[in-house]
Design goal:
Layout lengths: L1 H34 L96 H19 L28 E10 L5 E12 L3 E12 L2 E15 L2 E11 L5 E6 L4 E4 L5 E3 L5 E2 L3 H11 L8 E6 L4 E16 L2 E10 L9 E7 L5 E8 L5 E11 L5
Parallel strand pairs: 9-10
Antiparallel strand pairs: 1-2, 1-15, 2-3, 3-4, 4-5, 5-6, 6-7, 7-8, 10-11, 11-12, 12-13, 13-14, 14-15
């Protein structure tokens, strides 16, 4: 039994061995047949045929001429004035028996004297008495001009040694619109005492008339004391402001009135017996700053040379001669303001005080600072802190 099983196993091994050999021979034969064959290249895509299209060339456009560069905008500014250095001012000392002394300085250094109104002498009584020769010459020029206009053919021959009669300048004017100008007041008396307060320059206009009001006061402890009220009213025309009546009331004093009688052509005063003929452009001390504003608004070029204006005050009159010192920037509560600086230096025989005004082109040439320097050395400065425009006639 065991011999038969062993024989079967032996046969199976022989058969498996023969099959293994046969499979190896077949595999070797297949590899041998593949070794000599070249590899086939992958199929390539055929490129599509090229297509060409003829495009029309664009028609040439006409050349565009170059556009000129726009001109730069230039900001319009008022024509500059020559920068003139201020001349040194020698203040004349008034003597008790001198006719030029007048009543200047009365009440100076006391609260009753107070700050001066806009555009007038800080002394309170309007400066020194008028120099008769200056006013007569000013009036003679006006009369001569009127006579030449009325009788152009009849001109008497002038003597070779005769001095020409000066003619008052006539100005083109543009009245400033109605407004309230509020100012801070700082005053230093001759003895060094200092005062502070406020002032108001207010005016209204209609097509034919005007009203101006000036108020000034000081602050004492925590109280405000009104020291001065000046009013001016009249008509408006080619001359600018044409006063008819000015009143002045100071604390502790009686009211005074100055009359501009245009029908009779006479200037008179309630506080004195003085009378003067009216000439073209005569002002009072309340309307004077605004008249200078109107002249600047009419044509800034008119602010050249001497600007001579006859001014009626509370008891007398005098010719105020202004000159332009140059252009300045001043510091205010409204910021820095560009101005033109005008000054009326002391004039021996007429007035011993100095008056300076600063007009602002950016604010319609309105007066934004006013300073009075008295012969005694006291100084009052009024500086704008606000400008309020209002409707005419209000």
């Amino acid at each position: 039994m065991s011999l038969a099983i062993a024989s079967n196993r032996h046969r199976r091994k022989i058969v498996l061995g023969a099959l293994t050999v046969l499979l190896h021979l077949l595999v070797l034969d297949w590899f041998g047949s593949q070794l000599g064959k070249p590899r086939e290249a992958p199929a390539r895509r055929e490129a599509p045929p090229l297509e060409a299209q003829l495009l029309r060339a664009p028609e040439p456009r006409p050349a565009t001429p170059p556009q000129p560069a726009p001109a730069p905008r230039v900001a319009l500014e008022p024509p500059p004035l020559p920068q003139l250095p201020p001349e040194p001012v020698e203040l004349a000392q008034s003597e008790p028996d001198s006719p030029a002394a007048g009543t200047e300085g009365e009440g100076t250094g006391t609260p009753d004297a107070g700050p001066a109104p806009a555009g007038t002498d800080a002394a309170g009584q309007g400066g020194a008495a008028i120099a008769a020769a200056d006013v007569q010459s000013f009036q003679a020029g006006a009369q001569a001009q009127a006579q030449q206009a009325a009788e152009p053919a009849a001109k008497p021959e002038a003597k070779p040694d005769a001095k020409p009669v000066p003619e008052p300048r006539r100005y083109k004017v543009d009245l400033p619109p109605a407004a309230d100008i509020k100012l801070d007041v700082a005053r230093t008396d001759a003895n060094g005492t200092r005062w502070s307060g406020d002032a108001l320059l207010s005016w209204t206009l209609t097509p034919s008339s005007y009203k101006i009001r000036v108020e000034a006061g000081i602050t004492v402890v925590f109280a405000h004391v009104n020291l001065l009220t000046v009013t001016s009213e009249g008509t408006v025309g080619d001359e600018g402001f044409m006063p008819a009546l000015m009143t002045e009331k100071r604390r502790g004093r009686s009211m005074t009135a100055t009359h501009f009688n245009r029908k009779d052509g006479k200037l008179s005063f309630s506080a004195s017996e003085a009378t003067y003929p009216l000439v073209w452009g005569t002002q009072d001390k309340a309307s004077l700053p605004l008249q200078l504003t109107a002249i600047a608004r009419g044509d800034p070029q008119q602010l050249s040379g001497n600007i001579d204006i006859l001014v009626g005050e509370d008891r007398d009159a005098s010719v105020f001669s202004f000159v332009v010192l140059g252009q300045e920037q001043i510091d205010t509560k409204m910021g820095k303001i560009a101005t033109w600086h005008l000054a009326r230096p002391p004039k021996p025989g007429s007035y011993n005080s100095r008056l300076d005004l600063w007009l602002a082109p950016d604010y319609g040439w309105m007066p934004v600072q006013i300073r009075n320097l008295e012969a005694s050395g006291a100084v009052t400065t009024q500086t704008v802190n606000n400008i309020v425009m209002k409707n005419s006639g209000s």
